[in-house]
Design goal:
By secondary structure, the protein is of the alpha+beta class. Helix content is 28%, strand content 28%. It has a four-stranded mixed sheet, covered by helices on one side. The radius of gyration is 21 Å and the shape is globular.
Length: 372
Amino acid sequence: MTSHGLEYEGCNFFRQRLVLSTLSGKRVRIKGIRSRDDNPGLRDFEASFIRLLDKVTNGTKIEINQTGTVLFYQPGLLLGGTIEHDCNPQRSIGYYLEGLLMLAAFMKTPLKATLKGVTNDPTDPSVDLLKTTALPLLKQFGIDGDGLEMKVVKRGMAPGGGGEVIFSCPIRRTLRPVQLTEPGKIKRIRGIAYSVRVSPQMANRIVDSARSVINKFIPDIYIYTDHLKGANSGKSPGFGLVLAAETQKGFFLSAELSSAPQGQGPTILPEDLGKNCAKLLLEEIHRGGCVDSTNQSLALLFMTLGQQDVSKVLLGPLSPYTVEFLRHIRDFFQIMFKMEAKPPLEDERKGGEKVLMTCVGVGFSNISKVTK
């Protein structure tokens, strides 16, 4: 620990550090950002993320050295309000939304963000995925109401982008502690197959092939097809599928695949994409738990920030990203989780090993929301 607050090295887990710094109010210094690379320093998409944080906060102080290899970040107050942001097309809007989802409930005024850029790409969670899984998760922690919405106005595939998403979120003074320990069985599967600037038949082909895999397990499947035309379809062609399985207790496990950007990577047939995505969903169901692997860190953050009471969440195997997130939570909030491995019982076919995460919240409260 230095007088600078926390010090880190390297470009990994960049968003985690800045988001946790903003919530905890601790300054952060990150050095050695790609210092040995041919093209050193911050990438454009990271700079764009910093600009987004700057827009939703007030009084944030950011210093970057000339080569972009050292960043000093002193967080300000979360302001919120109506903002517009052009996300860098190197990463999808999901990259930026994940950061906003963590911060949105603690603003001074409710956030209404219009993000423009790439809505679906193969690397980041797509907007559709976050809409079907992250929003119900926010509701579990008491962030709900009419103001919570995520809407895809225009789709934009990589590399051209041209998509537009509106995300609005109400503010809360505190988060309620949760006990999410019983996921229950899968009761229905919903999905959305989208195609832009390609034949509308593509989406139907994806749906048929995905159903061919999942129909063996459950009859209640409904996959919507979403074919956008004209100005709403962005600048690049592509197609993809997002699947979400809902359990009896109202938890969502999800998987998605999208076609490789035009001119990059191997081309994939819609039939293969549908089948592979269905298999990914089955893999995610096998991992199980009450929160899918994409949203593990969001759930753990909200548990940490909850009132000073015990929260429990049953998760599938922790992803490497989540493991690093737990280390960062320890750095910023001094909170350690109790982790209990829950091996699957022999007679019940409950999938892979589960981890029961338990912690006591720090009692974080929104400083700018007046108590009524």
